[in-house]
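Blackboard transcription, Thursday session:
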Amino acid sequence: MIEVRDVTRRFGSFTALSHASFVVRSGEIVALLGPNGAGKTTASRIIAGILAPTEGDAVVDGLSVRQDADRVRARCGLVTDSPALYERMSLRSYLTYFARLYDVPKPGPRVAKLVELMGLTAVLDRKLAAFSRGMKQKAAIARALVHEPPVLLLDEPATALDPEMAQALRELIVSLRAQHRAILLCTHDLDEAQRISDRVVIVDRGRIVREGPTQELRSAGRPSFRAELVADEASVRAALETAGVTVDGIVASNGRLEARWSSADPAETNTRALRALLDAGARVISLNAETRSLEDAYLAIIKESRR
Amino acid sequence: MRKALLLARREIIEQYSDRGAIIRALFFVALPIALVQLNGRNGRTPDGIILIFALQAALLPAASAINAAAGSFAAEKEAQTLVPLLAAPIRDIDIVAGKLLAVLAPAAGLSVISLAAFDVTASATYGADRVAGILGPTTLYGLFALAVFLILTVGAWVMVVSARVGSQRTAQQIAGFVLGGMIVGLSVIGGAIQNLAAEAVIGVVVAILVSDVVALELARRLWNREEAVARL
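(Written on the board underneath:)
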């Protein structure tokens, strides 16, 4: 479990992170979202025990990064956007080297198990320089897992991966969550965050501007609705306006109409809208709630925070 | 200390898996031997010159440490491999000690090989008894100790430089200036020995020791995890 408690980090006069607080529980993936330079990497480095907070504290698996940084490091696995490998080494010697740095008692079997998990057994004795970008990133993840850490910090892990490899990486991250690890995913890839994260923390200019379950964030604000109808546009518009429904738009397509509206009180508004439409002689094919993408929610939140 | 040794071992293997590094090392070993060979053809050589050649044989391998030290941190910064290393449970002092050991051990080894090769070549050229008289065991140990101190100084100062710069190339360029300074320093030591000015020799040795202490302390401060990460 990770607990970030009112953490501030300054570099000279620049504040990279300001009074940030959030929690990542075991068996949970939390996406730390934000634009470039928002403070995501600073946050992950503080949690990893390689950068001390100027104020506040981060607690990893019950240990304070301020008081016990070395033991915190032993409990974290860190993957950065660049694989950052010693490319003249073979995969076997690279993973064995890090296993020894992390005091893994029997590196051999652990390395063998990891490369099997990553699908890298065939290239175990090949130099890392000869690996593709995706394989290098897998090797970096294997390095981060070599000591079986309860906490995994993934800082833009899918950068520069092709879609197939990014998909494989997502599946791997989800499988790691099933092993009860606390996973912090720092990213600005909203699609990736939407697919796998349980909760989202949005950071902008060093400040946390929103935090919550991914689904809740997507449905935040006024929910919007879409009705598919067979009717003429003028009568539909008139019926909805008479019923007091604020119409966002009506689009005609293939002999049908799509009418959109939003409401803070769907039970009341949708009932009135449906009644008005039926009274106007419209045939209603479907009425659906429209879910915002995480991207829409994120952009709205960032825009709002900058006002 | 176990982790410092682990780190040093990896660094040494990394350094010498580069063919250029091996060629540079062999050059520094071969240079004093070549000088003896060339000088041997010019009739009687003064004892002072033989001593200077021995000094060069001991100290020139320290130059190979410059490249290793420049690469040690700056290259890791450039390749971003420093972050996973700093994220591992290793004490700051073990990281600095491991890096310094990786610079010191091969250069000191080269210094021993170079001195031994010089001794054999000089004995064959100038006569074994004469060379044994000039280069007694105490002198040879003294030259080796001086080489170790010089390697430490060079290594630590170049590590200080590589803490401040962003690329290996810049670190190597600055290391070139350090090499220039070292050559001037060697000339001063050589001149001091030739003129038998013992005080000057002692002065230079003391200066190297003081420089060691200052550079090591600076390297320790600059390469604590916090400073290193803040500069990435």
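Lecturer's comment: The mean pLDDT of chain B is 78.
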